[in-house]
Amino acid sequence: MLNIGAVERETGIGKDTLRVWERRYGFPVPVRDEREDRLYPEEQVNRLRLIKRLLDMGLRPAKVVGQAYPALVALLEDSVGQQPEDHPELQKYVQLIKGHQASELRLALSRALLDQGMNEYLSKTVAPLSHLVGEYWLRGDIRVFEEHLYSEQVTVVLRSAIEMMRNDRGTPHVLFATLPGEEHMLGLLMAEATLSLQGARCTMLRGQSPINEIVAAAIAHQVDVVALSFSAVMTPLQVKDGLQQLRRALPQQILIWAGGTGVARQRSQDEGVQLIGPLSDLIKVVVEWTESESPT
Amino acid sequence: MLNIGAVERETGIGKDTLRVWERRYGFPVPVRDEREDRLYPEEQVNRLRLIKRLLDMGLRPAKVVGQAYPALVALLEDSVGQQPEDHPELQKYVQLIKGHQASELRLALSRALLDQGMNEYLSKTVAPLSHLVGEYWLRGDIRVFEEHLYSEQVTVVLRSAIEMMRNDRGTPHVLFATLPGEEHMLGLLMAEATLSLQGARCTMLRGQSPINEIVAAAIAHQVDVVALSFSAVMTPLQVKDGLQQLRRALPQQILIWAGGTGVARQRSQDEGVQLIGPLSDLIKVVVEWTESESPT
DNA sequence: TGTCAAGTTTGTCTAGGACGTAATAAAATT
DNA sequence: AATTTTATTACGTCCTAGACAAACTTGACA
Lengths: 296, 296
What we know:
alpha/beta; globular
């Protein structure tokens, strides 16, 4: 039995939203305490958690809010669509994640890095594995804490590799950041690893930085490039707006490179903002940059 | 100019609270846009940040809400007692932060760790320096991205030290987590470093985990203890509620240890939840645990 | 000095209404 | 038939103002 504030914390659905759903869709229907405050039974909270997942996948509230639990599960299985069995070579990692074997997972990830080399490692292992883990999470086969376990281990491996390549004299000098609302840092880390390998000087700003902070940091560190990562949780409009605002606020000579799933859906390329699809394009872009600078 | 949702995110003061302060104390007095929605000027947001900090220190709203900026700073200096200048040995770090010299900062931090040893390093350098950086940020002497620069470097140093001490066979097995709403991870990292040193087996869950995720992780990893960190952004009620719910959801034999500024304001100790003040107490608690287990 | 009762402060909850933006459906164009 | 443009609906967030319990302060008394 949770009050409305606790339900907001647990499910990530705002208080206002919970009340408006009750009015519009007739769900959830919490009981009331003696003060007439809402008290949500655990069963409804579980349903709300599932509903949140379905909404995150892009379904509309009208179709999911108010459905009974079995119907929600059916919806979930319908919308998952493609089966993630496509990558047999990644299954060993999935097994380690599900078995909560943190040390073994890190060992396997480290070994793969040294076996494949950074570029192949990122494109053939880390990127598809992250995608796969996301798929499993959507289907409910992997829990949030298991996903955390995975990204924690990848982070450790990549950061120590980046550390080995740190180069305070490298060019270009790149500042890595994400805009507010963007939580996924793995894309940023993969980009940092790629650019470190190319000899760039990398400065990592923590995620969720307001635009004026990014600008101040870029100027203070005298960077050549600001690199941003957008995952699919950001809407195309948010991405476009954010990039435009940043471009306006940043001095002309500092470039912007934007990558990640979120930019793949951008239609038009803005002036002064380099959109980057796959990681391999990032290498191309930095090579071009180096060539354009060297004659100077 | 921020709307009320953005101000809630920036300051940690709830929307309802902001509106009720306006009604009761006549501050803040946001301007309105054409839709009559509140728009808070940056100057008022800065004042609100300071107010939040004073409230977190235990002052009552009637005494601080509505005070002008200089009065707030005076109040802060009164209640802080010691001036930030009281730590001359920490000034060199502050200079490096303000000079954006990331590598030099990390070098200095690493050197201090090896010079002082972990326990003294945490209590004499990291904890007071983090506090000092927070103070400077409140006064506007340090920007957010500079604070990020600092915590990034501390994180790197502590994580690599923890890595060196990793022990998959250690006892107790401790799971580290923060509840939703809690963003500060440094306290958790300091606790992990302390316990690693004591020979514990440490598993780090990323921050902001819903209670059911913490429970699932604790059971899956078969931990002995769940360690939580609360900064001052969490209200005493939120802390109490969260701890109670977690205690109810967690199997009896798994202990809960809670630390950080946020628990210092808790009055009553709940059954089955160990509240921990300074880091040195943490050592005591783990020693007690070990002694109570060894006869078995 | 410590404890208890009465009084005050303060944050969170309640209600329904309003409105802009995002997502869909429909229409018009290529 | 495929794509772009426009109309319509869906949806979350913000608004007002009042109520109440928990936390805090104060003062009386042992």
